[in-house]
Specification:
Radius of gyration: 24 Å
Oligomer: single chain
Mean pLDDT: 91
Number of helices: 16
Number of domains: 2
Shape: globular
Helix content: 25-40%
Strand order of the largest sheet: 3-2-1-4-5-6-7-8
Distance between the termini: 42 Å
Order of helices and strands: EHEHHEEHEHEHEHEHHHHEHEHHEHHEE
CATH class of the largest domain: Alpha Beta
Low-confidence stretches: 429-454
């Protein structure tokens, strides 16, 4: 079995290392964070992912998986480091470049080098290959085999999808694609498709851009429905009865490292042509402000209002907060003077987000409004009594359309059905208003929305 070195032990790198180790490969996981390395060498994990802890524990105990802060000689090198965006939304590939440079002292003829990090089109050809060429290698003539193989997994189902999803292997050369494909066939039950690196780079970006654009359509529908006094959720349900229509649900925005980031990599390379992609990004980026402004309006007539935020992760049943719109909403609301905010998040470690987290009952205690920002399974199963017994006024703003409560004592506003939101005195009948005849005007500084999470 091959010796594999996986560089970057985050949400993709660690599960990838664990899956190869479970298959019998000798795997070295590399990360610049010594705490992550120490945690892994104890057989523990630093991220929440179903089943991962068990696989890692067994792999470490068997000696098939270990971690270090520097690479070592291997047959295969897999680069799975983050590629965030700069303030101008261009791709930051510094970590990928550093990872490629870090393996130069250990490379041998015939080694396989695979980049899994999401990168702009042309990065393998114009950025990564030249690193090896400058060091004296010739990937064009296959003295090392260089390929791009993007991850295509869903948080919460990563271990299943790493094995069962189709994998695209884009080789710098045809031979490189063939060699890399054989590595993935050690663990992948789905199809392994070989192509060139540019096509693989673009396919990865378009997979997530497709979803981002379609989510933007749903979010724009929510805004239109508010303006036209229509229930967007009902509209979506009816439209989706058509056999060729599948409109998504609106929400507080788009998070995660993929959908919220990848479209910008295309815009960066073809700004004049990527008009629809840019507009979709603007719509989805505007949603945290849309939510925050309606939260502000809902409590604007109250004296000393308290809002309970439920969920910070960008995705249900996950601790992944990367580019989370929930955190953007939190930070926008923190700008409002006189607003007390409590936060409950069952999956996220408090130190990870640097936000004070409390238990659910404490978050809801004496709150005037509960805002659901993440569709955790726990929230879908909440009973009306938890709101009635703990809140000052049991009013919910459900931005994920996931609350399943049918009780007239609980008032629920959904992000796609905000009709009647102007008549809020009835919702807060037991609280003293401080304003009368308020119109839907906001004080949120919208200019800060796009940069609030930087």
């Amino acid at each position: 079995m091959e010796n594999i070195c996986v560089i970057g032990l985050g949400y993709i790198g660690l599960p990838t290392a664990a899956v190869f180790a479970r298959a019998g490969c000798s795997v070295l996981g590399v990360d610049i964070n010594s705490n992550i390395v120490s945690t892994l060498n104890q057989g523990l994990v630093h991220i929440e992912e179903a089943g991962l802890n068990d696989i890692v524990s067994k792999a470490v105990q068997s000696g098939k998986l270990r971690a270090a802060t520097k690479p070592a000689s291997s047959d295969v090198y897999i680069i799975a480091v983050p590629t965030p965006i700069h303030e101008d939304f261009s791709a930051n590939v510094d970590a990928v470049v550093s990872a490629a440079q870090s393996i130069l002292p250990y490379l041998e003829k015939g080694n396989i080098v695979i980049v899994e990090s999401t990168i702009p089109p042309g990065t393998i050809q114009h950025v990564i290959a030249p690193i090896f060429e400058k060091a004296g290698w010739d990937p064009g003539n296959n003295d090392i085999y260089l390929s791009y193989c993007p991850e295509r997994v869903l948080p919460g189902k990563i271990l299943y999808e790493l094995i069962n999803n189709t994998r695209i292997v884009g080789g710098y050369t045809r031979e490189a694609a063939l060699e890399a494909a054989e590595i993935y066939k050690l663990v992948v039950k789905g199809a392994v498709i070989e192509t060139g690196a540019p096509a693989a780079e673009m396919a990865k970006l378009m997979e997530n851009t497709f979803r981002d654009v379609n989510i933007a359509l749903a979010n724009e529908l929510a805004k239109i429905s508010k303006a036209l006094n229509v229930n967007a959720h009902e509209v979506i349900e009816l439209a989706n009865k058509h056999p060729r229509v599948n409109i998504h649900q609106p929400g507080p925005g788009v998070g995660g490292h993929c959908l919220a980031v990848d479209p910008y990599f295309i815009v960066e390379k073809a700004a004049d042509q990527a008009q629809l992609i840019k507009l979709a990004r603007e719509i989805n980026q505007s949603m945290p402000s849309f939510v925050a402004r309606h939260v502000e309006f809902l409590v604007s007539e109250l004296r000393r209002p308290k809002v309970a935020l439920l969920g910070l992760a960008y995705k249900g049943n996950s601790d992944d907060c990367r580019e989370s719109p929930a955190i953007k909403v939190y930070r926008l609301l923190k700008e409002l003077k006189g607003l007390q905010i409590s936060v409950y998040e069952p999956f996220v470690n408090q130190e990870k987000v640097n936000i004070n987290l409390v238990q659910l009952k404490e978050a809801l205690s004496d709150a005037h409004l509960a805002v659901v920002l993440t569709d955790h399974k726990e929230f879908k199963q909440l009973d009306s009594r938890i709101f009635i017994e703990n809140m000052k006024t049991p009013v919910i703003f459900d931005t994920k359309n996931c609350i399943n409560i049918k009780n007239d004592e609980v008032k629920i506003y959904k992000i796609g059905d905000l009709n009647g939101i102007e008549t809020i005195n009835e919702s807060f009948a037991h609280s003293k208003p401080i304003k009368k005849n308020i119109s839907l005007k906001y004080t949120i500084n919208e200019k800060k929305v796009n940069n609030i999470y930087k």
